[in-house]
Amino acid sequence: MPMTNLIVHQLTRTDTKTDLHLQDAELSLDDHAITLLAEVKSSFAARASKRYGGFSEEAGHFKALTGQWQQNSIPFKSFTHQIMERLAVTLEQGGLESTGHWLFAEEEIEAGRQFWFFQLRHKDGLALTHDLQLSESRILDYSRLGFGLCLDLTALADPNEKQYLTVSFGFGDKALQDGLVDFVDFVATVDTSADTEAFMAVVDAFSTQLPPEKGQNYRKKAVEFCMEQDKLGEPVSVRTLSEELQTEADASISQYIEEAKPDVKEAFIPDRKSLKKYIRYSGRSKDVSISFSNDTLGRDIQFDEQNERLIINEIPSSLLKQLKSGSDG
């Protein structure tokens, strides 16, 4: 992971004041820096809140400054300083509160050049000193990272490319989401939910052509493959999925798509929320909450569609015990 630039600044915005501390020098690209960026990227890849797109047509400060940096009109450090100054103004004007450090990193990987913009947060803890005394300590909390952005600089340079910007939200970002999306001039160009639903509809249609047990297993394996790709932060290649699962069905979904569904995308970004409903059925009302694995439908749980009833043939032991205790009372 050859990083070329790395710098971190601090910004605290409360309802009464704004404190901005800009770093004068970039950080050394040592093992600590490599670990930091690796942890940030891992957290980013695992998130389900990602949105995919590009810059809006209207030129905002973030888009304009990025263009100046890429055209070598301003150096990396100056680019990050100006971004942070504009971010401080944006938070102040919007009455938004935020605290933490902001990471800026550029790296060159096999797929091309990438730029990362991420909010880092900390947690307090205790550490043992060399003389085995307890001391207060603050460390980066990778489980509570804030807003993140990944910009594919190689794709950005291609005028025909419409998907090069990915944004994601972390813990406690809800109040900031709209403001930060506007700040980075982001506009969505990919509907991951629609793409996932379209592909799973094809999987369902293909599965119904198989023997019931094989069809159900194929559907399950397809969902698991998509979920795994989501965890890795990678798109789903329909051809790769087809090759991986062909032994499950003794048939190829790729061939089925070519013959029956030629408009289906060859690759798509999976949407975790959409996939979850293919793993579990769930729902709740004011008084009842129900959740069960899709595998149990038709076996342990029957759906009477005509009367809109669920028939549970195997009650979980803990629930059964509660029901028996209640009836005894």
TrEMBL record:
Keyword Cytoplasm: yes
Ubl conjugation in keyword set: no
GO cellular component: bacterial nucleoid
Source organism, top-level taxon: Bacteria
Compartmental location: Cytoplasm, Nucleoid
Keywords from the named record: Cytoplasm
InterPro entries: Nucleoid_associated_NdpA
MF GO annotations: double-stranded DNA binding; single-stranded RNA binding
PANTHER family, sorted: NUCLEOID-ASSOCIATED PROTEIN YEJK, PTHR38772
Family the UniProt entry places it in: Belongs to the YejK family.
Name of the molecule in the record: Nucleoid-associated protein
